[in-house]
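This part of the workshop introduces the protein records we will be handling. Each record describes a single protein and holds just a pair of labelled lines. Instead of coordinates, the fold is spelled out as a row of discrete tokens. To make this concrete, we reproduce a full record directly below:
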Amino acid sequence: MLVSKSKIRILDFDIENRPLSYWYKGEPTSEITAIATCWVDDLSTLKATVLGRETLEEILVDFVKLYNEADMVTGHYIIRHDLPTINGALLELGMPQLGPKLVSDTKMHMHKKAGIPATQEYLSEIFNISAPKVGMTQNKWRKANRLTPEGLALTEKRATGDVVQHMLLRNRMLEMKLLAPAKMWRP
């Protein structure tokens, strides 16, 4: 079991999303296909809500409830990807936006460095994190993005695997004093 280093409630999360339509210069818009969550002090709370099993609205309602209960959220690149993507989905469905929240982002709050990747997968490998990244080939992504039964299982495995790996990575980065203090995220 992972143990929280503080008494605040910290929600670790990750989203998966798929391209939806072309926008400008060939850039696609996206749609959330899964949100995996876990309270950092209780691995038994690990879960994923997956499009195709639940509606996007159900996925968002579930996440927003947990987000609102959290004192802080954490993930990898959530400031520039996950949180804005969730707010975009909430906007499209006419739901209230996420409010300000204390955030610990293992990519954006990592101490400055150069010459090496900052992906969760790379950092986990160099820090000898025991939980591997769940790889997805192009064929697997196609199945996932088409919401096939096999694809839904792959999406769930990918999202929950990312959360487990991230919790271990963040703990290691905190031990090594590689993360700046959490900062307030404002939409």
Helices lie at 56-69, 78-92, 120-126, 138-145, 149-175. The chain has one domain: 10-185. The longest strand covers residues 10-22.
